[in-house]
Design a protein that fits this description.
By secondary structure, this protein is α+β, with helices and mostly antiparallel strands. The chain contains 3 helices and 4 strands. The protein is elongated, with a radius of gyration of 25 Å.
Length: about 190
């Protein structure tokens, strides 16, 4: 009789262990997923800073047009972003942006240039840190010099991190297994 109770207790412990193990594993894997997303966010912010800094020190070629210089400034910024992304994927579906054969971005139009997952814009000033650059409702924010000296350059970088934890996709509501993140940096052009 005592032997039967001992076997039953061991069986009960095994069932309880199995019932507790699954939620604990989900919590641990959820923590790992959060860590991956947080690490991607930090890396993305640093890559955006490096790209914007590269844009501020771009050497303007006075023998070329402002469109040429804006396209090449954008190309150097994109190269700096990609070089600073570390272990993050720099190709589709996580990140995508194209360069022309000469290392420039496709021809910019106006004060804002969108190239895949990066957006480069120029403005004279912003009224608040989150204000648009340039603000279409305020003509004073338009960057006037062709060389962009003393204007602000704003770089926005978007990235899609893979969701590896089962059910996390439904919790975050991302759909498709990718979680969109972005980083925006504004700096003064030298």
């Amino acid at each position: 009789m005592a032997r039967a109770r001992s076997n039953a207790a061991r069986g009960q412990a095994m069932v309880e262990f199995a019932l507790v193990l699954l939620p604990i594993l989900l919590v641990v894997v959820g923590i790992i997923q959060f860590g991956l997303l947080f690490g991607a966010s930090v890396t993305l912010t640093n890559a955006a800073r490096e790209g914007a800094r590269t844009g501020t020190v771009y050497v303007y070629d006075h023998s070329k047009s402002s469109t040429y210089n804006d396209a090449h400034r954008c190309g150097e910024m994109l190269a700096a972003v990609r070089g600073s992304m570390g272990l993050l994927g720099t190709s589709s579906p996580n990140f995508s942006a194209t360069l022309n054969a000469d290392g420039s971005c496709p021809t910019p139009t106006g004060e804002t240039q969108v190239n895949g997952d990066i957006t480069v814009s120029y403005c004279a000033h912003v009224t608040t840190p989150d204000a648009p650059c340039p603000d279409t409702t305020d003509t004073d924010t338009t960057c006037l010099p062709d060389t962009r000296e003393r204007c602000l350059v704003r770089l926005t970088v978007r990235y899609r991190s893979a969701i590896i934890v089962p059910f996390m996709d439904q919790i975050l509501g991302t759909g498709g297994g990718l979680f969109g993140q972005s980083a925006t940096v504004t700096m003064v052009i030298n």
